[in-house]
From TrEMBL:
Gene3D superfamilies: P-loop containing nucleotide triphosphate hydrolases (3.40.50.300). It comes from the Archaea. Residues 238-250 have a biased composition (Polar residues). Signal peptide: none annotated. It comes from Natronocalculus amylovorans. The keyword Transport applies. This is ABC transporter ATP-binding protein. InterPro entries: AAA+_ATPase (IPR003593), ABC_transporter-like_ATP-bd (IPR003439), ABC_transporter-like_CS (IPR017871), ABC_transpr_LolD-like (IPR015854), MacB-like_ATP-bd (IPR017911), P-loop_NTPase (IPR027417). CDD domains: ABC_MJ0796_LolCDE_FtsE.
Amino acid sequence: MPADTPPLIECQNLTRSYTLGTQRMLSRSAERPTVTALDTISISIDRGEVVGLSGPSGSGKSTLLHLIAGLDTPTSGTVTFDGTDLKTLSGRRRTKHRLENVGIVFQHFHLLDALSARGNVALPLVELGIKKRDRRVRAKELLEAVGLGDRITHKPAQLSGGEQQRVAIARALVTNPRLVIADEPTGELDTETGAQVLDRFKSVAEDTAIVLATHDPETLAIADRVISLRDGKLVADTSKSADISESGPRSQTESVSSQSNSVQ
């Protein structure tokens, strides 16, 4: 990739706060308390880059994933996708953006019980207006790639947790997205199957940015960079590449990491 190619994803001073409780629970004069899930995060993600996202539970990983994917809106700051500020998109345009550009592996899979494995994987292609024959061929190809070629007609209730997770991964990849977001993508998988799935992620990474939130060291090992969060703050952004830019969000986070280590 040329050195002057802009990042696919750029987050600038990203903050997300949530209001707790309801006004009925408080006196009329009391302000509702807020919690800050993410605090002024600035990062960038390049095309073809695999980024691991680590941190303890409650550190802000899922919140960051939702913001990058366009599933949520920041309280302040910006998320830009290929130069477009996601905040400027209407609800309909944001939905279209996710459908065309983003593949998501949710931690709880969100498979439709009434559909077969192939039907679940093909669902995004239905929304895109792809012909039925082409949908079936593409869904079968992805299911075979994640080791479920013999489970194509099975419904979610007939699949194990690990098999359901692989269906969700195949669905995330079916549209050839420009960005893949995955929350604990190997959490339900045995070591061998997890390695196969990670190989599949790596194989699509030439043109696709991939962000993997995980506690698993083997999953983090395939990443080009690992971003670490704690209490909603950026504490480290480490890269396997030696030629890291000396300016911009990435160098800022590396200096944060150095300061954090010196305090500890």
